[in-house]
Design brief:
Layout: E1 8-15, E2 22-27, E3 34-35, E4 38-40, H1 47-59, E5 62-76, E6 81-93, E7 106-112, H2 124-136
Parallel strand pairs: 1-6
Antiparallel strand pairs: 1-4, 2-3, 2-7, 5-6
């Protein structure tokens, strides 16, 4: 039995708009669940560059990736693969009003504060990291 991690690397951004509210997205494929913007790291891709690329593809916006906040393993339910989730703090370049779904992957976007987490059906791995993030503010 191999004891080393073998799986996918997913990267997500906590984009805080400066008033204690962060960006969440609802995926076209999972209409009942919200998540953080981002996606998979490509082979031989720099992690920060990969996150910038994913957010640009999904939302058409630019971000500045700051520092990693958390790393955790989880089972990607839809694809039944083990994934390493790396969550980064990021800053939006531009106005929060410019953040709109581009079609394809993201169906809806919203800005939420700590008091709204319980009202949103978030995947557990995102709920945990957002709860920790808001506790540090």
């Amino acid at each position: 039995m191999d004891e080393h991690f073998v799986g996918t690397v997913a990267q997500k951004a906590i984009i805080d708009r400066g008033d204690g509210r962060v960006l969440i997205t609802r995926d076209e494929r999972d209409p009942d669940a919200w998540e953080l913007p981002g996606g998979r790291l490509h082979k031989d891709e720099d992690p920060k560059d990969g996150l910038v690329r994913e957010v640009r593809e999904e939302l058409g916006i630019e971000i500045i990736v700051r520092a990693p906040i958390a790393a955790t393993q989880f089972l990607h339910v839809r694809e039944q693969v083990t994934a390493l989730l790396i969550t980064w703090a990021a800053a939006l370049v531009g106005s929060p009003d410019e953040v709109v779904p581009r079609g394809g992957e993201v169906a809806e976007v919203d800005w939420v504060g700590a008091d709204e987490l319980e009202k949103r059906p978030l995947f557990p791995e995102y709920h945990g990291v957002l709860t920790s993030y808001f506790m540090r503010l």
